[in-house]
Amino acid sequence: MITFENVTKILGQKTVLDGIDVEIKDGETFVIVGASGAGKSVMLKNIVRLLTPDDGRVMIDGDCISEASANELETIREKFGVLFQSGALLAWMSIGENVALPLREKTDMDETEIVDRAREKLALVGLEDSFHKLPSEISGGMVKRAALARAIVRNPRIVLYDEPTSGLDPVTARTIDSLIEQMRRELAVTSVVVTHDLHSALAIGTRIAMLHSGRIIELSTPDAFIRSAEPIVKGFLESQYITKRGSWEGATK
Amino acid sequence: MFTCGIKSLGVITVVALFSGMIMALQTGIEMMRFHLEENIGTAVMVSMLREMGPFMTGLILAASVGSAIAAQVGTMVVSEEISALETMSIDPVRFLVMPRLIAMAIMTPILSFYTCVTGVIGGGIVGVTQLGVPWWTYFDNSTLFATTKDLYVGLFKAFLFGIIIVIVACHEGFSASQGAVGVGIATRRSVIASFLAILIVGYFVTKICYI
Ligand SMILES: Nc1ncnc2c1ncn2[C@@H]1O[C@H](COP(=O)(O)OP(=O)(O)OP(=O)(O)O)[C@@H](O)[C@H]1O
Ligand SMILES: [Mg+2]
Fold it and tell me: Most B CBs within 10 Å: which of A105, A134, A158, as the mutation test of the B interface?
């Protein structure tokens, strides 16, 4: 369980998060949507303590990660896999080595186990053929998928996704969606997904939160989300041609 | 990382050779007036070992390897690769800085020694062709007054310079922000800062060791 307790984060002059209170339950796929610059990535970074709240705190299964010591932090972070917005693969290592890195550095698995596991996770994202390629030799979408393989290589209980489907073609995007959904169903993985892609949000989310001006202005199930009375949410839905009646009506009106 | 030093070898060779030649020419012209041109070997060797060798090597490596490290680390910061390492609980300092530190602490003295040798050869070429000093006179003379202390102090300086370059470059790289512009700024600052540090540290090592 991930709990935000009155989390406030100020970056530069701007209050990016303004007293966020929210509880993300185990086994949930919690989707965060919002305009560019709304603070979605900042919210995600507070969960793994890449940023520390200026006020309030984030709790992970009852442990306060925001105030954890270096050792505690390492233990808590073992629960996480993180997919970064830009992929963040190490440029000088092959895709396979990148995926294997967390195993190699942080577990005592032997070489064959490591390679097998890396191949298994790469196959899951459809990249089994790219094991020996460098990140610069594959497309942006493939980098994203390789980064996803790295994020889940240690079978984490919680996975954070910063825009997992942006930059992907629609078909691959749906493959990633079903992967997230499959991990929730079969492994009870908790996912926190930041996305601009409302189709994806509605398909995989157990709950959707809309971030605006540093606050969560809507938090509901996908069904309730598309019926939201909140004007900003409505505008957001309409911008992607999603209305209460059906996905594509807005486009042809 | 060792390849980084090797790549600078071409530049280092040219710079060392020509500095040796310039030094020999300048001192030789003056010494000729007193018919002392046979002593240019000493002049080139001692100044190369003590100062010019490590100093030039340091500057070249700061401009080539140091800037490359700052750019690389800076890029890793702005592309969230450092953050990714942190979430995997991989210490970026141990993972990124240590290997580079070790490589440069070894490579810089080796390259500095190479610079000295090349510089002395450059001086010799000028001695033979321009000043009419025979090869053997030049080399006998150059080893006559150079002490092993000169060699050790020079290598120690180079060792320090190597460490300075990596620490400065990584420090600037880690503090990069705001995309590609930030990486550019970090790279430039890293080169300037290590130039200054090399000069200042070089002076104090000389002062401590020779006074
Ligand atoms: N390191 C930083 N220093 C200063 N301001 C920052 C920093 N990181 C983010 N911000 C600011 O915080 C705000 C939210 O940034 P964030 O990256 O969370 O946006 P986002 O919702 O993820 O947007 P996007 O959809 O474009 O990724 C932005 O206004 C940004 O300018
Ligand atoms: Mg973002």
Answer: A105
